[in-house]
Design a protein that fits this description.
By secondary structure, this protein is α/β, with parallel strands linked by helices. Helices cover 43% and strands 21% of the residues. It has an eight-stranded mixed beta sheet with strand order 3-2-1-4-7-6-8-5, sandwiched between helices. Helix 10 runs antiparallel to helix 11.
Length: 230
C-alpha cells in the first residue's frame, strides 16, 4: 500500500567509501516496494558520492553542509508516508526489512519512532565494549544517535517538529522531543564504520562525545559545540 511506503533520507559529504554498502543493504526494501524513494541529501561532496548515488538510482539534493540542514531538506523532498533517516556509512542487517514492516504495520506506532541497535564493523574487544555502552545508554535514557537510524511516520515527524538546522546534536535534539515513551529500539543491527574510533581512539573519541553531550545538556549552543567537535 502507498501509505506503507518509506522514503529513505541519507545525508552525505564525501561518503563514497561507505555509501555503496549502505545502498546495497536497502535493495531488499526497493525490491519489495517498501522503499518508495532514496534521497541523498549532499552537503558538498568532492569525491565519487554523486556517481555512486546516480548509479543506484537515488534522488540527489545539493545544499550547504551541516547534517541537520541536510536531513531537513531531505524530509521536505520526501513523498513516502514513512521516513527512514540513515547515515551514509551505516549498513542495516538483512532483518531490517521484516522489523520495519512489522513496526509500520502496527497502527499504534503511527505516533512512535524506532531506532536500530548500534554495531561497529570492527571485530576487536574495544568495539564490543562500546556497543554495550551504547546499548545501555539507549535502554536507560532512550538516546540513540543518528548512526542508529530513525524510522517514523511523516505525520509524526511533523508533529514533533522534525530536524532542526543544527551543526551538531541534531539527532539528540529530535530524539529528546520524541521522548522515551515514544521511542522503540528494534533488535536489528545498524553497523557503522569504525574508522572514526580507530583514528580518534576508542576511549578518547567517546569521551569527547560525552563531553559535548554534557555541554549540550547544560545549554551550550550547538554552533559552539561544533567547534569543539572538529
Amino acid at each position: 500500500m502507498m501509505a506503507d511506503m518509506i522514503s529513505v533520507i541519507i545525508p552525505t559529504r564525501n561518503a563514497a567509501p561507505g555509501l555503496p554498502a549502505t545502498l546495497a543493504a536497502l535493495q531488499s526494501g526497493r525490491e519489495s516496494s517498501l522503499i518508495q524513494q532514496i534521497i541523498i541529501s549532499d552537503g558538498g561532496s568532492t569525491d565519487g558520492t554523486f556517481e555512486i548515488a546516480e548509479a543506484a538510482g537515488t534522488q540527489i539534493l545539493q545544499g550547504p553542509p551541516g547534517r541537520g540542514g541536510q536531513l531537513q531538506r531531505g524530509a521536505v523532498a520526501a513523498n513516502g508516508e514513512w521516513l527512514l533517516f540513515l547515515h551514509g556509512d551505516t549498513v542495516l542487517e538483512p532483518e531490517w526489512l521484516f522489523a520495519a514492516e512489522a513496526f509500520i504495520a502496527d497502527d499504534a506506532n503511527n505516533g512512535q519512532a524506532a531506532a536500530f541497535r548500534f554495531a561497529l564493523d570492527d571485530t576487536g574487544p574495544a568495539a564490543r565494549r562500546l556497543e554495550r555502552i551504547v546499548a545501555w545508554r539507549c535502554a536507560k535514557f532512550a538516546l540513540p544517535y543518528g548512526d542508529q537510524g530513525l524510522l517514523l511516520s511523516r505525520l509524526f515527524y511533523g508533529r514533533v517538529g522534525g530536524f532542526r538546522d543544527l551543526p551538531l546534536m541534531e539527532d539528540v535534539d529530535l530524539v529528546r522531543r520524541i521522548g522515551k515513551r515514544r521511542l522503540k529500539m528494534l533488535p536489528v543491527a545498524a553497523t557503522t564504520s569504525a574508522r572514526r574510533y580507530k583514528r580518534g581512539g576508542y576511549i578518547r573519541r567517546p569521551a569527547r562525545n560525552l563531553f559535548c553531550l554534557s555541554l549540550y545538556f547544560l545549554g551550550l549552543p550547538p554552533r559552539l559545540l561544533a567547534r569543539l567537535y572538529e
